[in-house]
Design goal:
Blueprint: H1 2-44, H2 46-113, H3 138-154, E1 158-166, E2 172-180, E3 184-186, E4 192-194, E5 200-202, H4 208-219, H5 233-239, H6 244-250, H7 252-289, H8 298-307, H9 315-333, H10 337-369, H11 375-439
Parallel strand pairs: 1-5
Antiparallel strand pairs: 1-2, 2-3, 4-5
Helix pairs in contact: 7-10, 7-11, 8-9, 8-11, 9-11, 10-11
Length: 440
């Protein structure tokens, strides 16, 4: 059976081969018949034969001309290739050194600028990397040189750009910004900074001195702009300066107490000073009015008290009564001065207390964390210094206020005492004049 199967397979393969040979023979015979038919057609049509011959000769002539031109071009290219080969063999080491230097400088520029430079807002601004280049090409050299020239020119240009900027609330919006060389980039209201990934973000705090210049510069109304030659170090330091309210909060609870006492003392001093100013005006009017006594001022009340006394008493008794009336007016004139003086004395002491507590906090931080990180000690030092400053700032105006109150009340007291003494003296003189004729 196996032999029979092999015989059948062999006979099948032979039959397929025979069929293929017959198909090829039929195709060749058909092609020969077509060629014969065409040849007979051309032989019968003499004019067509002549035209075909002329066309073939023209094609042959053109082919020969093209062949000659190609041979001449090949010879020229062989000469150029030979010259280039000789020059390359002579300059092989020099070109390799040039490629190495070009690759090194390109890498240094990319590393120096990186994502921190404002010139790299456009990713294509940096020169290409040439570490993988094996052969120096003219285009590579031109690209690196053009890129360096463009970067150099952009360091002195102010360009207006459209970029995505992360706002302070975290939202990213399309903003119109100005890139000022390689020094800064900013919108009309804030300076910009670059994150680790190269994204643009609003600076957490733009210094007030610079913020006032941004809007006019971006709108074109002014050509004045602050430049930080340290590439942002100075601006960052200015931005970290605490505001007045932040400095106040650095004083802690002791600072709050000092300021509260200072405010209370100043309010009391202001209220009392206004009262004394009003009293001074009424006392002056009373002094000018003479006999028309009024009880709306201390001098008028003292004189009215004297008018109600028994004039037949001894001079010593009358003087004592006058002193009593004057002393009764002093508490109102000196009201608030002890409180103001007390707050002026306590404020520096509280500042000293804040200094001591701040230093305790600082030493505790040093004990726990050491002295490696100054920021850990900054809180205690800030509290120590701020509370001292608050105590002095509070005490100085309170001392001035207390001095002004004392001077004003002393002046009024002297005026009242002088007028009272003059009235008593006039009464005693008139009484003595009346008793003199009687005695005579």
């Amino acid at each position: 059976m196996l032999v029979g199967a092999l015989a059948l397979i062999t006979s099948g393969a032979l039959s397929q081969t025979v069929l293929a040979q017959e198909s090829l023979r039929e195709a060749r015979e058909a092609a020969e018949q077509r060629d014969q038919a065409r040849l007979l057609e051309l032989v019968n049509d003499q004019e067509a034969l002549t035209a075909a011959l002329d066309e073939a000769e023209a094609d042959h002539a053109r082919a020969e001309e093209t062949f000659a031109a190609l041979q001449e071009q090949q010879a020229e290219q062989m000469e150029v290739a030979s010259e280039l080969s000789s020059r390359q063999s002579e300059q092989d080491a020099s070109l390799a050194d040039l490629l190495a230097d070009l690759s090194r400088h390109s890498a240094e520029i990319r590393n120096a600028l990186g994502e921190d430079s404002w010139l790299t807002l456009d990713p294509e601004a940096l020169p290409p990397r040439l570490e993988q280049a094996e052969v120096l090409e003219r285009g590579q050299l031109e690209t690196v040189v053009d890129t360096l020239a463009r970067l150099t020119a952009q360091t002195g240009e102010a360009l207006r750009l459209e970029r995505d900027v992360a706002e302070a609330n975290g939202e990213i919006e399309r903003e119109t910004l100005v890139r000022l060389g390689d020094f800064a980039a900013f919108t009309d209201s804030a300076l910009l900074t670059r994150r680790d990934g190269g994204e643009l973000a609003v600076l957490p705090r733009t210094p007030r001195e610079i913020e006032r210049l941004l809007g006019d510069f971006v709108s074109g109304e002014s050509r004045v702009m602050a430049i930080d030659p340290t590439q942002g170090t100075v601006i960052a330091a200015l931005g970290q300066r605490p505001s007045l309210i932040e400095r106040f909060h650095q004083g802690g609870y002791v600072g709050y107490v000092i300021v509260a006492l200072g405010v209370i003392g100043l309010l009391v001093a202001l209220a009392q000073y206004l009262y004394l100013v009003g009293v001074s005006g009424r006392v002056k009017r009373q002094s000018r009015s003479g006999a028309a006594l009024r009880d709306n001022n201390p001098l008028g009340r003292v004189l009215l008290r004297f008018e109600g006394l028994d004039k037949h008493q001894s001079p010593e008794a009358l003087e004592a009564r006058m002193d009593e009336a004057v002393l009764a007016e002093l508490p109102k004139l000196e009201r608030g001065q002890p409180l103001v003086k007390l707050t002026a004395a306590i404020a520096p002491l509280l500042g000293l207390l804040g200094t001591v507590t701040g230093m305790i906090v600082t030493f505790q931080a040093i004990t726990v964390f050491g002295t490696g990180d100054p920021q850990l000690m900054a809180g205690g030092i800030s509290q120590a210094l701020v509370t001292t400053v608050l105590g002095l700032i509070t005490a100085v105006p309170l001392l001035f206020a207390q001095t002004a109150l004392a001077s004003r009340s002393r002046y009024l007291t002297q005026v009242i005492e002088g007028q009272a003494s003059a009235t008593l003296a006039d009464h005693l003189e008139s009484q003595s004049a009346q008793l003199a004729p009687t005695a005579g």
